[in-house]
Specification:
Farnesyl Diphosphate Synthase, two-stranded antiparallel ribbon, 2 strands, transferase activity, Isoprenoid_synthase_dom_sf
Amino acid sequence: MDHKEIHAVIAGDFSAVNDTIHQQLVSNVPMVEKIADHIISSGGKRLRPTIVLLAAGLTNSQGTQQHQLATVIEFLHTATLLHDDVVDTSDMRRGKPTANAQWGNAASVLVGDFLYARAFELLVKIGQLGVMDTLAATTRKIAEGEVLQLTNVRNPDASEAQYLEVIKGKTAILFQACGECAGLIADSPKDQTTALANYGLHLGLAFQLIDDVLDYSGEAEKLGKNVGDDLAEGKPTLPTIHAMANCSEDERQLIRSCIRKGSLDQLNEVMSIMNRCGSLEYTIAKAEHHAEQAKLALDAFPESDYKQAMKALAALSVKRDF
């Protein structure tokens, strides 16, 4: 299955989610609608709502709660993007100027807060305490992950274990919630809800690992952001962590200096070291492992188009160039 075939499985539900998203963006303050619509309509993959809808199909969910849940997840994700771009002083996302570059930091932060509030209003409408509990804890863990990443900025001594803790908190935990909450709204057996949570967690880890590979190997036009952003922001990611563990002392000091300064002046040299050490291949192998773990989690379910689409999504998460 390719992306079009995956989306064909949930086409009707996906259209309903898009309608719900735009209905819930309504505000009495025009700038709120403008900024929220700017980032939500800017060409994102809508990967997290896709996971919710596929998992809901897998568990035979009825009604419209899965549409509301997918909207909640998209709003939470979008709020974190608005805040992240302010923290990272980013000026481009998905090939367009970031909201903070266009309207300023204050407006971006406040519209992010609006989206958090709207997400929790929708959660009340869903009315399931287990879902509320999971997403409240998830939102807290995302914030903790972002703060943990902030403490590692310009820290060339960050370990692989610390890096994995960061990406679990800032990225994979929301993927995990997509699967877990889909199981909860369907009142699925505990083992199946756990399986969906594990699917999301491993898919999220695979997705972020490949994102960090593409930061050094992708093309800015396809990525919708600048190549080398992580190095420019002084963020140690698995490619640089692996390279520093496997290169010469002089090369290690060069990478350490780039991370400390948050500098792209020697990006080509850093990429050359990573290529010689096989650091991108190492990171891809880790991503492939997690993609396989995501697929294995689906063994808890009988065969269906939804299951095949979820397996295909895991496979495609590590075979992409954007």
